[in-house]
Amino acid sequence: MKGNLSISHLSFLWIGIIGVLVFLGCQPSAPKLVGEPCKKSARRVSEFDSSSTYPTVVAALLASRFENLEELKKEINLFYTQDSSNFESDSTIHHKVVMLQCAGGGGVVSVLESGITQKEVAAVKNADLYDKLKFGISSPYSVANRESLQQVFLLARRRSNLFGEKDFAFYDLALAHTQNISTPELAYLTARDSSEKGYINSFNHITAQAFITTLYSRKLADFVADLHERYAMPELLTGEFTEDQLSHPDDNPVDNYVDMINNEWGQQLGLDLKKKYSINPATEWTPELLANYLNDLQEFYSWSFQVAFKPFRPDQEIVIRFSQKIMDVQSRKYLYER
């Protein structure tokens, strides 16, 4: 089999990582649920006042509900840290941003640290063998997980040349969740809620991160998204934003920080559903299983956003085709296709 591969293992890596960056935003490197920090936090859910953007916030967030970073800080706690490299020959400053959201009796911690970026990965794609080996040494996790990264890329993008004209990806699942909202009068409180920065974006991050965590690991879900955030907005690590960044209607830190929190909830859901359905690499993803999985995600969305949804059905085209896509991708049938 290996002797017939059409592209090298290193090439899979660059293609897979870059493809994942297209659909998925930021992701912390050390996600976990928290209990005690939230109990001790000065910003417990029960203490949110009536002026809060989310007076009854319980979990996931909508970037469309926040006008600026100061409003977001009413819902989460932000901390920035830095330290110098331990190597005398390297004067690099290591930055880290930590976010704490307390919600629904618990909460999540999101961490983004200095590290390799999308730009570095893109540069290595066309680099010579020496630079590729150098990059592999600096990021051994990338090389060790190259096949999983390529599989995530296939699930994250529409690939009609491989899976047929009507191919579906993670983003299509997010659109389907949005179309399933059955209480629009409760859902769309602002004009931006129906934009790409509203429900679609939140569903995209949470749903994709849940699937990646269930199918592979929480660590892989962290890795593929951190690359993008470090490159797209390095200031996320320091909090030193320009006025233009803070006031930009689309590319501003509010969206990125909300995505980071939502990614955490997606990963936790991925772990919970993996356990609930005893999912492992040998699991058969039937339309029934996928419909149940998606409906469990919608139960979380309903809890978070206080809206209702129409359920997914096993006989829906998107459910049938995406369940088959998962099986095809995990069988490695298309892993080495260009």
Short description:
With 338 residues, this protein is of the alpha+beta class.
Spatial order of strands in the largest sheet: 1-4-3-2
Kindly state the mean pLDDT as a whole number? 80
**Residue share in helix:** 40-55%
Strands, total number: 4
Major sheet: 4 strands, antiparallel
Q: Please give the radius of gyration in angstroms.
A: 20 Å
- How much beta, percentage-wise? 5-15%
Which of globular, elongated, flat, extended, rod-shaped describes the shape? globular
Total count of helical runs of at least 4 residues: 16
What structural class do you assign from the helix and strand content? alpha+beta
The N- to C-terminal Cα distance equals: 16 Å
* Uncertain residue segments: 1-34, 41-52
Helices and strands, in order, run as HEHHEEEHHHHHHHHHHHHH
